Amino acid sequence: MSFTSPREAAAADAARLQSKYSAQLADLSLPELQKAIQSWQGDLTATGIAPSVQAAFAPAQAGIEKDYASAQRSQQFGIEQRFKQSGLPYSQNQLADAERQAATALDAQRFQANKNLQFAEAQAGMQQYNNLLNLLGAGSGAALNLGKGFSSVQQAAIGGLSNTSPGQGALGGAASGAAIGSEINAPWGTIIGGVLGGAAGYFGASG
Amino acid sequence: MGNTQQQQQYQAIQADAARVLGQAYGLALPTMAGQYASIHEALGQGGEPDYVKQAYGGQRAGLMEGAMEQGRVGALQARQGAQGAALGGNLQAATLSGEQMGSRMADVLYGSRVSEAMGGLEQTNKLYQSLLGQSVQAGSASMAAAGTALGNVQNMPAYNKTYANILGALNVGGSIYGGLNQQYDPYSASIRPGGEAGSSNWQGFSPWADQT
Fold first, then answer.
1. Are A64 and A110 in contact (CB under 8 A)?
2. What whole-number distance in Å separates Cα of residue A55 and Cα of residue B44?
3. Chain A residue closest to B68 (CA)?
4. Cα B126–B132–B138 angle (5° rounding)?
């Protein structure tokens, strides 16, 4: 015959299951939050552009140089074609001069493009700095909220614990048992009641 | 406590809920772990996946081709101009000189490069946000599960089962003793006020008395 009620058994099973999932979720959440915060802290630099912004703009910088080199070749080809297809007589010096002028103009444009890119990178860096500060604030806020929430759970769990130690329970139980035993039959009732009451008090307090 | 049928229904509902919540957590936990892995993988690539890089590359090839085409038409214009051919307005407007072609090409490619850089950065920030959101979601779910576990424990009796069993045994013993004592008073009426010796059917019998 079992002395465990259906409610007690179901509640114990459910509590174990929920505790298991709670631990699994916390094991997933907290290390990832820690990794994310470390990543943001690594990206946050007060004196320069964030590494994530530099990483995003570095290919653009390299790409622009490549694009201008390619544009210059196409430009030369276009100028030559235009000279050749014009049907008019021209000297190589005229062609070279036209190409040089076009290349100089393109180089000035390339210089300006690089300046514009640096400006865009600086602006993005400032935005990223603010963004990272916000993320760090939100991340630490999330960690604090979790700590606060689990503090409440811990507090509630402590509130449910027995307020009596096993030793206190045994002494109290023995005294009560002895008193009851005395009413029934002294002195043997006192002794038997004390022993039984002490055992009951001990187990009761330890639960 | 309700009747047996009601108890059975409660047990069935409880079992179903336990099964479904197990399935739900079993689905959510690996999905979240997989999502974290994807986010980290994407961040490892600098926020911009390879296929987006390829897409931008394709876009630039198209822009370059367009600028060169305009340059070729420019060359045609030069030839036709030299031959005195009349040019249509559309052709005039659509043509570029060699100088303009190079400048235009570099210009449109610059726009694409900056757009790609900003897009990559934006994606990195979205991944950062996802990391935060995912962690907050998992943490909140963890806290909610801990709260539910606590609620379940509060559904359990506040006393120790062993203690309850011992008390129960004492009560049973006390009831038997009390019952027998009511039937047979081993003490005389003079020392137990209100008692009336010899009123019981069990008169003369005591389980503790020497029966020999």
1. yes
2. 11
3. A74
4. 130
Q: What does the alpha-carbon distance between residue B43 and residue B24 come to, in Å, rounded to a whole number?
A: 28
Q: Is the pTM of this model over 0.90?
A: no
Phi-psi region of A189 (alpha: psi -120 to 50; beta: other; left: phi over 0): alpha
Could you tell me where the beta strands, DSSP code E, fall in B106-183?
A: none
Placement of tokens 């003793």 in the chain: B177
Under 8 Å between Cβ of A170 and A205: yes
What is the tens place of the pLDDT at every residue in B166-175? 666 667 666 7
Residues A64-97 have pLDDT tens digits of: 999 999 889 988 888 888 888 888 888 999 999 9
A101-155: per-residue pLDDT in tens? 999 999 999 999 999 999 999 999 999 999 999 999 999 999 999 999 999 999 9
Residues 103..162 of A with a Cβ closer than 8 Å to B: which? Answer: 105-106, 109-110, 113, 116-117, 120-121, 124, 128, 131, 135, 138-139, 142, 145-146, 149-150, 153, 156-157, 160, 162
Give tens-digit pLDDT for B89-104. Answer: 444 444 567 777 788 8
Radius of gyration of chain B (CA): 46
Residue with tokens 């009413």, as numbered in its chain: A183
What is the three-state SS of A77-104? HHHHHHHHHCCCCCCHHHHHHHHHHHHH
Residue A127 in contact with residue B124, Cβ under 8 Å? Answer: no
Q: Which amino acid is at B10?
A: Y
Provide mean pLDDT across the span B180-204: 50
Place of tokens 């389980």: B207
Tell me the HSE value of B71 on the side-chain side, using a 13 A CA sphere.
27
| CA-based nearest residue to B184, from B171, B196, B172 | B196
Is the preceding peptide bond at B49 cis, omega within 30 degrees of 0?
no
pLDDT of residue B126: 93
Structure tokens at B48: 């911009």
